[in-house]
Amino acid sequence: MKQPIPVTIVTGFLGSGKTTLLRSLIEKRQSRRLALLINEFGEISIDGALVRGEAGADDQVRVHDFPYGLIAYGDDELFLPTMQAIAARRANVDHVLIETSGLALPTAIMEMLQSPGLAEDFVLDATLAVVDTPLLLSDQFEHGGGSDAAATVFGQQLEFADVVVLNKIDELDDDALLLAETRVRERAPNVRFLELAHKAQLDIRLALGLRLHQPTRTEHTHSYTPLATMPGPNAGVLAEQGRLNGHAHSGLAAHSHGLATHKHFHEQDPGWLSFVLRSDAPQSADKVRHALQEAVRLEPVLRSKGFIRTSETDQAVLVQGVRSRVMISVDAVRPAARRSELVIIGYHASRTRVAAVLSELTGTSWR
Ligand SMILES: Nc1nc2c(ncn2[C@@H]2O[C@H](COP(=O)(O)OP(=O)(O)OP(=O)(O)O)[C@@H](O)[C@H]2O)c(=O)[nH]1
């Protein structure tokens, strides 16, 4: 029987460090042949470009971009054929790594992996959730603390994780780490391992090859039997509606119907928006940083990233903003972008107002 290819899902809220983790795993891959699926919530792929940069010309690492929508969700037509193509070249793939968008739940992928089209070829190895630990400690992910929409997505990502990676701990002391651990445990009692990461660096043995999920597809039959007690016309809502569907199994140790049902309640919240702003004029890195920080103060922007063209260097300049923390660095390998492009992600953030702030504070036109 052919061995299924292990799949690791890397999830985590916007800007928590998923791409940084993937890049460090690529660096430590040794002889492992990897296929990577990168899903971003934005119309241009910044993470895919960064991951490709890490992989270089090595054809042992193949990167597949999913720059639109949410990977494996209802309207994604790319996931199944991409995975089938990976299965077709299985002799050259040791492990599949999937980075979800910061606004996606891993459940859609988990469910698809168990579907008849993929179950024979793949097995879920583990789901890792990367956490921005200072943000967790700042109460931004408490309901009523920052944005409830962010708190909801964050909580659900943790709920389905096997491993939680506490990242961005560079400036935290032991008490803060203990508090972070308690908060994760309260939200996600099923998490199997908690790992500490500096700059999203993990020992590759703590990330790949964990084998936390046995294949769950076994032969089984479905039968629909009359329920012992049918609800009358005036019956109220039951705490557990699932008991009313009369659906029973035989011969199935563990099954995925819970996930399948769950997924449909969590298709994307339309309040989350991403848009791209562009400028043809050369930029000053300091002014762009200041302008993005102002935009975060005035608008519900949670993430900004992209490349800008500056008059200061011929190399590409990478912008990485997670709320008001904006880092701008020269990317030594990449030539300067022809124009500046920034992806902005927020909850009901106004494109017009963010463009106006950027234009005013950089003294250049952003559209
Ligand atoms: N200080 C600090 N910054 C970090 C650490 N890990 C990642 N970062 C920074 O956090 C920012 C976001 O990191 P990414 O790896 O792009 O985050 P992501 O989760 O892939 O982001 P999205 O795909 O947009 O959701 C970047 O500027 C990283 O350099 C860390 O351990 N400490």
From TrEMBL:
Database matches in InterPro entries: CobW-likC_sf (IPR036627), CobW-like_C (IPR011629), CobW/HypB/UreG_nucleotide-bd (IPR003495), P-loop_NTPase (IPR027417), Zinc-reg_GTPase_activator (IPR051316)
The protein's annotated catalytic reaction(s) are: GTP + H2O = GDP + phosphate + H(+)
Protein keywords:
Chaperone, Hydrolase, Nucleotide-binding
Q: Which CDD domains match?
A: CobW-like
Q: Name all CobW C-terminal domain ranges.
A: 272-362
SUPFAM superfamilies hit by this protein: Hypothetical protein YjiA, C-terminal domain, P-loop containing nucleoside triphosphate hydrolases
Cited Pfam families:
cobW, CobW_C
Determine the domain of life of the protein's source.
Bacteria
Entry keyword Hydrolase: yes
Q: Which family does it belong to?
A: Belongs to the SIMIBI class G3E GTPase family. ZNG1 subfamily.
Query: What is the annotated role of this protein in its UniProt record?
Result: Zinc chaperone that directly transfers zinc cofactor to target proteins, thereby activating them. Zinc is transferred from the CXCC motif in the GTPase domain to the zinc binding site in target proteins in a process requiring GTP hydrolysis.
Report what the protein is called.
GTP-binding protein
Q: Which organism is it from?
A: Massilia mucilaginosa
